[in-house]
Structures are given as C-alpha cells and as structure tokens.
Design brief:
Blueprint lengths: L2 E6 L9 H8 L5 H9 L3 E3 L2 E2 L11 E6 L16 E4 L3 E6 L16 H9 L23 E7 L2 H12 L4 E9 L6 E5 L2 E3 L7 E3 L4 E2 L2 E9 L3 E8 L6 H8 L24 E9 L6 E5 L4 H14 L1
Parallel strand pairs: 7-15
Antiparallel strand pairs: 1-4, 2-3, 2-4, 5-6, 6-7, 8-14, 8-15, 9-13, 10-11, 10-12, 13-14, 15-16
Helix pairs in contact: 1-2
C-alpha cells in the first residue's frame, strides 16, 4: 500500500516552489525524486494536480502519494550488538562509530538493522517499513552512542510521540575546535536543507524547522573544548550544524568543518551518552548512560598531554 503524506503551507513558505517545499519537508527523498513524483501526477494541491514550478500559497493543502518501497532482501546478520537493556517492547543499543543504522543505497549489509533482524527475528516494529524495522530515531554513521529500538508498533508510536514533543532526554559529548568562552550557551537557530548541497543541512530561515541545542563546557584545552550538548529538538545533524554555525565545528567533522584535521579520525568526535524517556508500556521514566568510547578517550588523553 502506498503512503499518503499531508502538508499545510504556512506563511513562511508562501511563494516557495512546491518541489523545493516537499524536498525540505520529506527528508529522505531528493528534489529530483520529488520532481518525478510530481510529473507522475502523485501530488495535488487543494485536490488539483500541479507542476514542479507551482508556487505554494499559505493555507494550501498538499497531498503526496509515495510508493511503498519495494521489498528488498535485507538479510539478518550475526553481529556483536552492545545491548544495554531489552524487554518485550524496546531494546537499548550502544552503537559503535562507523556502523550505519539502517539499509540505504550502497549500504544493504552490515547495518544495525541487519544485526537487529538476526537478534530479534520478526519482533521489530514495522511502522518504518522493510528498510527500517524498529528504528525510532537514528544517529549518524560516524556518531557513536545510545539508540532505542521499538519491538512492536505500539511502542514505536509511543516513542515517536515523545520525540515529537521533545520530552526525551538526549545528552551528547563532543570535542569542538576553539575555546568556548561561556560556561554554557543555548543555540536557538532554525535548521533546513542546504540550498546547494542537498546532502547537507544549514542554519536558515527558509524552509526550516526550529532547532535548540544547550551546550555546557566540561573542559578547555589549548585549541579545543570538551563539551556536553543537550538536545531540545532533534533535527538532522543538529549538533554538527549548530556548533559549526557558532564557530566551533566538531573535531573530525569534514562536512561542516575543515577537511584538514589534526588527528587521524574516522569521523566527528560525537557520542550519544545519555538517553532517557518514559517506558512505552509502564510510562515510568527510565534513563541509560554509557562511558565514552575508546576513540573519544584517546582524543581527550592526547589533548591533556598537549596541555602539560
């Protein structure tokens, strides 16, 4: 069965081309794919078929028909999953840096989903389809840390609701370039798709969503800061984009920072250390935390040696 997506155009998107509007609203579909969907007459505005150059008007009711993904042969694979907790409804995983969360073009094997399918069999929620069974939220391939996986659709819906109202506790640790002068800061800057590089996000007032990150300094070094980032919202690449925006890109992040990095790293130094939420069945608050992984500790130890 195909998926039907509904959107209402707000004032800030008045005058935006519909293909641009939809490519910003639907994260996992490129603008070229959106244009093909429009060409195939799968998009209506106020019950009328439109073309890609249609300019949205405030109050427009947009309906998009997305074909359900073809069932690919996503195979279960035995993996060493670092399971922090598991019951009939959820699994808490501590993901290693370098592991892709779910299958996508170019990554159909060795993803966290492959390992979860081996471990859980058919006991994963199906809301996100065959490509992302159980996946409630995700972290980047090169970000390490805690994820919650849903084992049934009821748990999945409950956790997504908690994410949508920003009630989950999500705390990350990172190392960023330059010294943050303040002891703590709050970054309140909207994030949207980059106007040129569609694989990147950026701070922008156009076709964006509000994004808030709370930063706390943990330790300062000569040219770097060890910091805690607490997410109030959860936009794609939020911490990476926000820290780059204020002049403190993440160490190891060659996408939002410099391509030249002082350490041999496999990506940004970013670890999802704490995750807390109300259990979807009992409604009792539970919280999980992890130690910093070895790659992160090595960076901190190197920085501490430089200070001496």
């Amino acid at each position: 069965m195909d998926n039907l997506l509904n959107f209402t155009v707000l004032e800030e998107n008045d005058g935006t081309r519909i293909d641009v509007f939809l490519s910003n609203e639907i994260e996992d579909i490129s603008r070229n794919s959106i244009q093909k969907i429009i060409q195939n007459e799968k998009v209506t505005v106020n019950n009328k078929i439109v073309k890609s150059n249609y300019k949205c008007k405030e109050g427009d009711k947009i309906l998009v028909e997305i074909e359900s993904p073809k069932e690919l042969d996503i195979l279960p694979q035995k993996m060493d999953l670092n399971i922090l907790y598991e019951d009939d409804d959820i699994i808490i995983i501590n993901k290693e840096q370098g592991v892709v969360v779910h299958p996508a073009p170019g990554h159909y094997e060795n993803t966290l989903v492959n390992g979860l399918m081996y471990h859980c069999g058919s006991s994963l929620s199906g809301i996100n389809g065959v490509m992302r069974p159980g996946i409630v939220h995700r972290i980047d391939k090169d970000t390490s840390g805690i994820l919650v996986i849903a084992k049934n659709d009821t748990a999945h819906r409950n956790l997504v609701d908690q994410l949508s109202i920003h009630s989950m506790t999500r705390v990350y640790n990172t190392v960023v370039f330059n010294n943050i002068k303040e002891e703590s800061i709050t970054i309140n800057a909207p994030i949207g798709r980059h106007p040129i590089d569609r694989k990147k996000m950026c701070v922008t007032n156009k076709n964006s969503k509000n994004a808030i990150t709370h930063i706390k300094v943990l330790e300062r070094f000569k040219k770097f800061t060890f910091a805690e980032a607490r997410l109030e919202t959860g936009r794609t690449h939020q911490i990476r984009v926000h820290m780059s925006y204020i002049g403190h890109p993440l160490l190891g992040d060659t996408v939002y920072g410099s391509e030249k990095q002082p350490f041999k790293l496999n990506g940004q130094v970013l670890h999802a250390r704490v995750l807390g939420f109300n259990h979807p069945r009992t409604n009792k608050y539970i919280e999980f935390s992890t130690e910093l992984p070895d790659y992160f500790k090595k960076v901190l130890n190197s920085l501490k040696l430089e200070v001496r």
